[in-house]
Write a structure and sequence with these properties.
Distance between the termini: 71 Å
Structural class: alpha+beta
Strand order of the largest sheet: 1-8-7-6-4-2-3-14-15
Strand content: 5-15%
Helix content: 25-40%
Number of helices: 14
Shape: globular
């Protein structure tokens, strides 16, 4: 007899079936003769440093026991939790991820791309999208993103450019875009979806920063609402799930769900974290149905109060606001990109100052510091943040500070968004025969014109400045020098001082 669907139950959104299953497991208080080795948290209880938190988590850190289901072949509580998530977010199928949006990007690109296949991909995608091409042995026609004139920040490609490139490359297997960007800027996904579907191609969307989209009238529409075929969301970023908790949503039949499931079985741990899975179930439950309006009330009030406080004051600090001339269509109200209107404090310096006053920001760039509010943010948080900025202004505005040169953010202007396919293997770009196989070190200042032999990734936001095999432009050199001077975090490059970089040279150079 088939198990009844959660959609047949009364008020299904009031339930969190996986949370309930774990609570029932803990209530049994049975003896553990199975993994994990901490034995229901007992190993943590004798140490006062960790007993109060690891002990509690350990109680629920279980394995695939009767009643707890199996992520890779769900028939019980996990299956029901995923069905409820699909209903909440508007998908045909939803899959829980315990490896963040990274594993979702790897799976959905791997599901459409085989060796030698190409996809259309915006150049300012997360590093995991390039890693997916490297794993698949596929290629990309990189699409240049729009640059917003007011902020200098890059968003996504236009539907017109996608249409043009799909005519040039009808063999492309899919279109991959990121929406929103890290700063909450959202582009016109409906037009992009219509364009991709007109050419018979699926639209894959990295919606890592938009798990909350479409759930409240004050938020932009979600990628699923705009017609995307496969969507990855970092539930842990903007909804109340544990770090590494994410979801992959599918609608329609343009991408084979069975292939997606197979890729997920390859990429996800065979011993997934039950606390992370349960937090995904809980996060969905907290915004489902009648709970939705109340879930967003506190966070929206907090961020609204903070924005109004900045507007009504004579602060030296401004924040990014949507304008009709912007290159994006909506702005996530929970993201506030603050900057020094006098252009003397960089975003990196302002982030450090805020930390000194007890306010930890999400990230910084050359101009902005990005503040991320959430569902659990409060008016007290907004007051503390405003107070910190006031103290910073009082302390530093009297100092004689040189005005910083005005710079565009997220440089360079992507060199391989030139419209020609770029093919990858596990080392990066497939090398033509005139490239030396062994990389050599070069001083960053003198590296322009060579090919990067490293993936150079400012983190956050995790968008490669350079991937292996990409030409190093003068703009990239300038960006690296700025990152070095500002003490920015850059992943992938072997020389952590950002003084030297590994490169390949073409023969004769």
């Amino acid at each position: 007899m088939p198990r009844p669907s959660s959609r047949m139950k009364q008020n299904p959104d009031d339930r969190a079936p996986l949370v309930e299953a774990l609570l029932a497991y803990a209530a049994r208080n049975s003896s553990s003769f199975h993994v994990p080795g901490h034995k229901r948290g007992a190993s943590f209880l004798d140490d006062p440093l960790v007993s109060s938190w690891l002990g509690a988590v350990g109680t629920f850190d279980a394995t695939e026991l009767p009643g707890l289901d199996d992520l890779h072949s769900p028939t019980g509580a996990i299956r029901e939790a995923q069905e409820l998530a699909a209903e909440c977010f508007g998908a045909d199928r939803t899959y829980f991820l315990v490896g963040g949006s990274t594993v979702g990007n790897l799976a959905m690109i791997g599901a459409v791309c085989k060796p030698g296949d190409i996809v259309l991909m915006q150049r300012n995608a997360h590093k995991s999208a390039v890693h997916a091409l490297m794993l698949a042995g596929g290629g990309a026609v990189f699409l240049p993103p729009h640059r917003d004139a007011a902020s200098g920040l890059y968003t996504g490609p236009s539907a017109e450019r996608i249409d043009e490139q799909l005519r040039n490359f009808p063999e492309a297997k899919a279109v991959f875009v990121t929406n929103p960007n890290y700063y909450g800027m959202s582009i016109d996904l409906r037009s992009i979806a219509e364009t991709a579907h007109k050419h018979g191609k699926p639209l894959l969307v990295d919606e890592a920063h938009g798990a909350h989209f479409g759930l409240h009238p004050k938020l932009p529409a979600s990628a699923l609402q705009c017609g995307a075929d496969v969507v990855v969301q970092s539930t842990h970023k903007m909804l109340p799930a544990m770090t590494m908790g994410a979801m992959l949503h599918v609608q329609g039949g343009r991408v084979d769900a069975r292939v997606l499931e197979q890729r997920l079985r390859m990429l996800q741990s065979s011993s997934p974290s039950y606390p992370i899975l349960a937090s995904l179930d809980w996060a969905r439950s907290s915004v489902h149905g009648n709970r939705r309006e109340g879930a967003f009330r506190s966070g929206l009030e907090a961020v609204h109060a903070f924005r109004n406080a900045l507007k009504s004051s004579s602060f030296r600090f401004g924040f990014l606001e949507w304008e009709p001339a912007s290159s994006y269509s909506r702005l996530d109200p929970f993201k506030v990109a603050v900057y020094d209107k006098e252009e003397r404090l960089s975003g990196f310096r302002l982030q450090a100052m805020l930390a000194e006053h007890g306010c930890d920001a999400e990230m910084a760039d050359e101009r902005h510091v990005l503040l991320v509010f959430g569902l659990a943010s409060s008016l007290q948080d907004a007051v503390r943040l405003k107070s910190a900025l006031e103290q910073i202004e009082l302390r530093y505005c009297a100092e004689k500070q040189e005005k910083r040169p005005k710079t565009a953010n997220n440089r360079p202007l992507w060199p391989n968004a030139s419209g020609q396919p770029v093919f990858f293997d596990m080392d990066g770009v497939r090398k033509p025969p005139n490239i030396t196989r062994e990389p050599v070190e070069a001083e960053v200042e003198h590296s322009a014109g060579a090919l990067s032999a490293e993936m150079v990734v400012p983190y956050p936001p995790g968008i490669p400045l350079l991937y292996p095999g990409e030409p190093i432009t003068p703009e990239a050199v300038t960006a690296l020098i700025r990152y070095r001077s500002e003490g920015a975090s850059v992943q992938g490059i072997r020389d952590e001082t950002l003084t030297r970089i590994l490169v390949w040279h073409e023969s004769g150079i």
